[in-house]
Amino acid sequence: MGVLRHVVCAMSGGVDSSVSALLLKRMGYHVTGVFMKNWDSQDERGVCSSERDCEDAYKVCKMLDMPFHQVTYVKEYWHEVFSNLLREYEQGRTPNPDIMCNKHIKFKHFYHYALNTLGADAMATGHYARTSQEDEEVFQQKHVPPPRTLFRDRFEIRKPVRLYQGADRFKDQTFFLSQISQDALRHTIFPLAGLTKDFVKKIAAEAGFQHVLKKKESMGICFIGERDFEHFILEYIEPKPGNLVSIEDGKIMGQHQGWFTLTLGQRARIGGQVDPWFVVDKDITTGDVFVHLSQGPTTNHPALFRDTLQTDRFHWIAEDPPVELVRTQMMECHFCFNNRMPLTPCTVTLNLDGSVWVMLKEPIRALTPGQFAVLYKGDECLGSGKIVHLGPTIFTLQKGQNCMSRPPKDTDQQHPEPVS
């Protein structure tokens, strides 16, 4: 390598980013580690977890003889991620802050800080994901502003960088990267692209990163930690009490503190009820949350299952929709709205406003407005759009079919002639 390339690696204090920094050093790059602080909080023991993570990241950089920086995005996170999250909950939706954090913080503010402030040639993260370009191609990219129109100028010739699932499909994190910009993707290296989590842990152990290997993997919403979600969200949103209503007979089973404290498919805590009740639907106009009594630890009530949804304007990672979709207005691909769910075959229809309709091959449980519909073609992540409308539930369709199958009442009764 003729020129020593400068790469800024996002350091979280975890094993994945630590090994990413190590691999970048082994590749011969000049690597700078940067820790991002996005939230001011303390855990249940009064310890600020971000300070502990920052110390762990610093230890790794010291072991690798790397420069270390800390940058704070608490204000940006509040305005661009958390405030949006509160608005979504108040509108009866269930947002995904991890996707929005990557879009607005890590792959926008941090990306610009790495390239513009620190003068890096590229940035790197510990995500399990791949792109269509080799590492050396990353350093040949130039900044290109995003299109100002709905779609890019069709006469502009530019080969987009594609986002692909990582080698470890169980740990694949392209779901969380489905809203990032093409420009940021062009300047990003994923050192763990071809590795499994087990192999990453082995590298960390051999490197002596014992302090990060011992840590529990972060799960759930980062700023909530192990706290009860309902107690947390009610610190920021005024309670809006309403009824928990049995979807079977309309009987009021109990009360809730706000529809935003409950999400579809979760167990509802109803005082005096021993048997498990689960949330199957919500009506934010009345404040009613509909519940179903289950005989087991979960429920598959037909009111939870739908096979149609619409997104807002879809974010295509390549900036333009696939040629097949533009040409025929329809495309077969795969869908998910939760990173832990298997991909589901679907048919996508492109609308004139840039939104898409998604028709699933099989109904899916607990499709939720506010979550992101992420589309895949083979192992390529095409992008995502926020779910804004849902089709009817299987329960609603069954009720409609039952009504249609009933014989009309009073078929033999003579009706008087209408008065003219």
Automatic annotation (TrEMBL):
It is an enzyme of class 2 (transferase). Residues 230-291 form the tRNA-specific 2-thiouridylase MnmA-like central domain. Keywords: ATP-binding, Disulfide bond, Nucleotide-binding, RNA-binding, Transferase, tRNA processing, tRNA-binding. Its main location: mitochondrion. GO terms for biological process: tRNA wobble position uridine thiolation. Its EC number is 2.8.1.14. One of its GO terms (cellular component) is mitochondrion. Residues 407-420 have a biased composition (Basic and acidic residues). InterPro entries: MnmA-like (IPR004506), MnmA-like_C (IPR046885), MnmA-like_central (IPR046884). It catalyses: 5-taurinomethyluridine(34) in tRNA + S-sulfanyl-L-cysteinyl-[protein] + AH2 + ATP = 5-taurinomethyl-2-thiouridine(34) in tRNA + L-cysteinyl-[protein] + A + AMP + diphosphate + H(+). Residues 307-387 form the tRNA-specific 2-thiouridylase MnmA-like C-terminal domain. It comes from the Eukaryota. GO terms for molecular function: ATP binding; tRNA binding; tRNA-5-taurinomethyluridine 2-sulfurtransferase. Residues 401-420 are annotated as: Disordered. It is found in: Mitochondrion. Pfam families: tRNA_Me_trans (PF03054), tRNA_Me_trans_C (PF20258), tRNA_Me_trans_M (PF20259). Catalyzes the 2-thiolation of uridine at the wobble position (U34) of mitochondrial tRNA(Lys), tRNA(Glu) and tRNA(Gln). Required for the formation of 5-taurinomethyl-2-thiouridine (tm5s2U) of mitochondrial tRNA(Lys), tRNA(Glu), and tRNA(Gln) at the wobble position. ATP is required to activate the C2 atom of the wobble base. Belongs to the MnmA/TRMU family. This is Mitochondrial tRNA-specific 2-thiouridylase 1. It comes from Cyprinus carpio (Common carp). The gene is LOC109069263.
